[in-house]
């Protein structure tokens, strides 16, 4: 699919909520976040063909793990389906990291997709009515289609050079500082 060229980086934004698919800092969880300009919201595309079907693997830029369906149920009441996690490629069944991408069929934005795992089990955002429910799950049944399953793909263009890192300005230390006096006192005691 042209929205997911192999080796590129993308962000997936929930069409309904406006939040981004986000790799949690614990290196395992996946949630929704407002933080667009974060490495945690960037996913590298790996395309594979398995048994004649094209799949996409989403490799997290922040922790180097793949977006995967867990065998565990959704972690919170109010979340639907199975938990979505960051996983090593072979941690669960290797198929756990394989996703099919289908363009949204309702004539909306051409960059909107449904991210599908197995038959009709779709990646879904949670929190339509309870905004603090920021979990991401996969329906575990043949659930009816919902706008919570619709994602906008945003390509992240490559940079010509690494981003500029600005180090903090060094603060001069006065010789009258109590810290410097302590160091001199320590050094004096080492010399004896």
UniProtKB/TrEMBL annotation:
Which CDD domains does the record cross-reference, listed alphabetically?
beta-trefoil_FSCN_ACP-like
* Coiled coil (residue ranges): none
Task: Show the Pfam families listed in the entry.
Answer: DUF569
Q: What is this protein called?
A: DUF569 domain-containing protein
Q: Which residues form the DUF569 domain?
A: 1-143
């Amino acid at each position: 699919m042209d929205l997911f060229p192999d080796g590129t980086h993308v962000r997936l934004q929930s069409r309904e909520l406006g939040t981004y698919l986000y790799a949690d800092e614990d290196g395992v969880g996946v949630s929704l976040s407002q933080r667009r300009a974060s490495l945690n919201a960037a996913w590298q595309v790996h395309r594979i063909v398995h048994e004649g079907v094209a799949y996409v693997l989403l490799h997290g830029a922040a922790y180097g793990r793949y977006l995967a369906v867990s065998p565990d149920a959704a972690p919170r009441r109010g979340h639907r389906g199975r938990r979505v996690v960051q996983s090593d490629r072979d941690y669960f069944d290797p198929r756990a990291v394989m996703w099919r991408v289908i363009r949204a069929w309702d004539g909306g934005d051409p960059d909107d997709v449904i991210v599908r795992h197995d038959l009709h089990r779709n990646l879904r955002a949670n929190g339509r009515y309870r905004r603090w429910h920021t979990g991401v799950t996969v329906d575990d049944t043949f659930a009816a289609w919902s706008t919570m399953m619709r994602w906008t793909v945003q390509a992240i263009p490559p940079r010509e050079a690494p981003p500029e890192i600005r180090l903090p300005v060094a603060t001069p230390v006065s010789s009258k500082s109590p810290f410097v006096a302590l160091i001199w006192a320590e050094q004096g005691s080492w010399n004896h």
